[in-house]
Amino acid sequence: MDAQSLLFGSRSNSSSPSIQNLKASFFSTLPNYFSPSPSSSIQSSRLVSFKIHHSVASHLVISKKSLQCQSRVEKVENVPDFDKDLGKRSKRKKLAVFVSGGGSNFRSIYEATVRGSVHGDIVVLVTNKQGCGGAEYARYKDIPVILFPKTKDEPESLSVNDLVTTLRRFEVDFILLAGYLKLIPDELIRAYPNSILNIHPSLLPAFGGKGYYGMKVHKAVIASGARYSGPTIHFVDEHYDTGRILAQRVVPVLASDTAEELAARVLCEEHQLFVEVAEAVCDDRIIWREDGVPMIQSKENPNDYS
């Protein structure tokens, strides 16, 4: 099936736009940026010309003026490169978010992109449940929704090859798994190496792997007697919850906690942590140590890492 025909989920009842139309609409809203031409400053230094005289006095005056002119040229050369700086500021990352449920982490990230703390945009949402809360919220915000993986019950769902092609057409830079319960196929991991991040509601590697999701995680944490829990964000590999850990947030487990109470406190930390990671990803502040461990570079102090 043509991947362009598999988008759905706008608020109107009309037929869904194609991917190319969505992209055209999106890029038509981008502002045009104009940088001041550097030639204007350079040309101004050419406006001063000096005529050589043979008298000592004239030579001294000429020398003084030459030094002044040279100083002006040096100041022009030290002006920041506006074209390069503007390019860095205008380069917003394009994000795809995968969800299977209510999508509260997806909403937190979306709101952060709108207010500007995350220097990127969610250009598409992928889900395996077209009626889930995350998909409904995406439609309400006019974000294209894609069904994945391919199933017999959902004829509009995409195969993995169609999904990769579609994400490429959206020019996606990073994929954020925000409560997506399906295993990510190898083809997608190879297409986006070190560019897929997942959030898990426990301190990995504890209470992770196949079957550990949602309330099952929190029940297992309480039953184990663990004194601490909390969310983990990690890069995705071919297995459940085994990729390189990028960030964690510690949440105490209280003696009287129910699974629901612990889940609520962990979820609050998830919302904050995922936004912080999204900010770092979109700012190119993910640094890989020589041993392959990813670190987050501090925005305030580039010499600090977490």
Automatic annotation (TrEMBL):
Cellular compartments annotated: Plastid, Chloroplast
- Residues annotated as coiled-coil are none
Molecular function terms, GO-annotated: phosphoribosylglycinamide formyltransferase activity
Tell me the domain of life. Answer: Eukaryota
- Domain Formyl transferase N-terminal per the UniProt entry, residue ranges: 93-277
Q: Which Pfam families match?
A: Formyl_trans_N
Quick one: signal sequence residues? none
**Which keywords accompany this UniProt record?**
Chloroplast, Plastid, Purine biosynthesis, Transferase, Transit peptide
Give, as one word, the top-level EC class: transferase
**Has keyword Transit peptide?**
yes
**Known pathway:** Purine metabolism; IMP biosynthesis via de novo pathway; N(2)-formyl-N(1)-(5-phospho-D-ribosyl)glycinamide from N(1)-(5-phospho-D-ribosyl)glycinamide (10-formyl THF route): step 1/1
Q: Does the keyword Plastid apply?
A: yes
Its GO CC terms? chloroplast
Please name the InterPro entries in this protein's record: Formyl_transf_N, Formyl_transf_N_sf, GART, GART_AS
Q: What is its EC number?
A: 2.1.2.2
Q: Which reaction does it catalyse?
A: N(1)-(5-phospho-beta-D-ribosyl)glycinamide + (6R)-10-formyltetrahydrofolate = N(2)-formyl-N(1)-(5-phospho-beta-D-ribosyl)glycinamide + (6S)-5,6,7,8-tetrahydrofolate + H(+)
Q: Which protein family is named in the record?
A: Belongs to the GART family.
Question: Which NCBIfam families does the record cross-reference, listed alphabetically?
Answer: PurN
Name of the protein in its database record: Phosphoribosylglycinamide formyltransferase, chloroplastic
Which organism was this protein described from? Ilex paraguariensis
